[in-house]
Amino acid sequence: MTITPYPETAPSFWRSYGALWKRVPGSAVYLLAVFVLAMTSVSVLSGLFWTGVGLLIIVIGLPIIVATLFVARGFGVADRFLLGLTGLPAVAEPEWHRDPVARPGFWATLIRPLRNGHYWIYLLHGMIVSPILSTISFVLTVTWLSVSLGGLTYGFWGLFLPRGDGGEWGHYVADAVPWLFDGWSSWTVEVVLYFVAGILFSFTLPWVLRGLSLAHHGVARGMLGRWPSDDLAAEVRAEAAARSSAVVAEDKSLRRLERDIHDGPQQRLVRLQMDLASLERRAQAGDTDAAAELAREARGHAKAALDELRALSSGVAPPLLQDRGLSAALDALALESAVPTRVELDPAIDAAVPAEVARTVYFIAAELLTNAAKHSAATAATLRVWVRPVGPGEQPTLDLWLVDNGRGGARFAPGHGLEGLRERAHGLRGDLVLQSPLGGPTTVGVHVPLAGAPADA
Asked: 331 and 194 share a domain?
């Protein structure tokens, strides 16, 4: 037996009409308020702009024009904010900083708005487009509101109007259509016609205000909203910032590695070289006991140097990570941690995380566990890593969380470990967040996008 599904029922006319009426107050307030905003903007912007143009012959004119562009941006933002009263979708914020790298210098900073088309479009909107459109919408809004309210209530407030000979117009209508108003008084005809007009205008009021609001919204989307090229500009700027953060983080890591090698393995190897030289002299002199003692010391220094080199290399390119993947490396990292650590890993991370991202994520996890052992006095920690589920068109993200039961109080500080780890996360166009109230617990989250991560991070 074939089951025929029930067809989807469209919203009834009266339900849709009722929904439009719910938007009437907000739309009316917007259409009246935006007229005041437009008249203010055209007055202020015209005065400032033409003053700046007139003074361009001297240096003071250029800052005045730049200031005009910023004022125009403010009026445009206010218009977009007021649009929220209509219940229509919000207009996306434009990209105000389109330069990938900010140019230094006073003049470069001063003329930056002049190179951004959004500022000029906002100026055009505030000086010309908005005043014209707002005037038209204001007249229509006032007309529909006044006829709707005035027509329905004319039978009350019309009684207070002075009525003398020739002042009434109802009898003209009655004379024009005697078959309809035969025997009616002039006052009755006026009340009926006003009432009918009030009903018609009230009935169409939601559609008129909605149409006017949509007109403003369409203009705002085209002139005050985000352009398709803005996303590309934001992508380029984010890429430049990520690469800059990656370079800074790598430079600090290399300097730290150089310092650690100098203070650790290099000093032990120098001591080992001196012990071997002494061992050679004692062996030649036949002092076997002293030679054996020096040999034992040299062996200890060699083992210590080897352990330190292994520890340093684990922060650069651990062999386990390269051979068996990120899951195995993080498991081993938790087992070797001085703080007992429970690990929760998403099986999908090895296939989803690129090698260059996995190396940085491993390094960040190692540093976080080291910090927990050194500074938090924690007795237990949980390391959780998974690939965040995404929907259509969304970017996959790797989430790493480390939670310990230490004393808390951790914070970002320039030149310290957490700040360096945050720069490493920024190098992957990700972010590192920290919650560490006094008394604990400390929660550190690392969120790294898995699509488009820079390969040199």
From this structure: no
